[in-house]
Amino acid sequence: MSEVIVITSGKGGVGKTTTTANIGTGLASIDSTKKVVLIDTDIGLRNLDLVLGLENRIVYDIVDIVQGNCKIRQALIRDKKNENLFLLPAAQTKDKSSVSEAQMQDLIKNLREEFDYIIIDCPAGIEQGFKNAIAGAEKAIVVTTPEIGPVRDADRIIGLLEANGLAQPKLIINRVKQNLIKQGDMMEIIDILEILAVDLLGVVPEDESIVASTNRGEPAVLDQNSRAGQAYRNIVNRMVGANIPLMDLEEKNSIWKKFKDFINK
Amino acid sequence: MNFCIDEKIQNNAYLYEKTVRSGQSLYFSGNVIVLGDVNSGAIVEAEGNIIIAGKLSGIVHAGINGNSEAIVYAKEFTPAQVRIANLIVRKDDSDNSYANYPEYAMISKDQIIIKKYI
Known about the structure:
The complex is a heterodimer of chains A (about 260) and B (about 120).
Chain A: E1 3-8, H1 16-30, E2 36-40, H2 48-51, H3 62-66, H4 72-75, E3 77-78, E4 85-88, H5 101-112, E5 117-121, H6 128-135, E6 139-144, H7 148-163, E7 170-176, H8 178-182, H9 189-196, E8 199-205, H10 209-216, H11 227-239, H12 255-264
Parallel strand pairs in A: 1-5, 1-6, 2-4, 2-5, 6-7, 7-8
Antiparallel strand pairs in A: 3-4
Helix pairs in contact in A: 1-11, 5-6
Chain B: H1 5-8, E1 13-16, E2 25-28, E3 31-34, E4 43-46, E5 50-56, E6 59-62, E7 72-77, E8 81-84, E9 87-90, E10 103-108, E11 111-116
Parallel strand pairs in B: 1-3, 2-4, 3-5, 4-6, 5-7, 6-8
Antiparallel strand pairs in B: 7-10, 8-9, 10-11
């Protein structure tokens, strides 16, 4: 029985594509018997191929499939490291109206026969691209950052998801800066949960190493030293049913902080 | 095989005077000359040859109707993929080096080869 999960946010730039790449890579690497496909539905502004480092391998894309130019199998690109992870790229030179909701549903029905996890990377916005992305999904993950704009957009998205039969989406709060929260300059996790009233799937700390790993095309989830990577590993484990507490978001204690703590005792 | 690129540029050419940006595509039934760059995410397709005066980072497809005599030239040659007729090559993932001289791609013995342009 395959799971079809859409990753969405409303707001752009909060980390949907990074989250998709990390969750997909994580799911594929914890259980090599499960086949995972990541679908980029951001037609015209595709990025998922870059984050996975697969850009040079794209010959056919999702628009070629729905237009009948190629078979599904021809458009799927196998990941460099994980044999059981595949990417279905978006087209870059077309626009969102090149695919309809019915065509998406049909495509996902076909992918279900082969894949255990189908993860859909949704474009920003609430227009046709969003409608396509959620058309074939049965679960949703909403990504937000602890800022008022993204949280309001996440609220709007949760409303739209519920109206389209995707009740109880899960929430990922990305790019959390614990030091700003402590100073009272960033929204508290608990405040966000109060506004959005959905289950929290995970909290990902701001991590500079994710910039480097994204630019290299190697998802941080594989990097044992990355804090964001650890957060994504926790999220993936929760998705497969493990009960893992939220990670400690405190910056690793520096000598200076230990010294201050000592003085304050 | 020895040839001069000038011979290959016939009258039937489309001159594009700007940079082809991500998401844009060019198609022409003859030769295409791009005076700018071809950026990552852009695609240039031609039934004839493709000449790029700037940097090639995107995808090019020369001889798209099966003309295996077609060539692709760029001043800076770092494409994601080069397709000529029905053949395709892609950049090696580990190869981040690029030459600081012009190069061109052509078909030789049923495969695409990339050579230094004098």
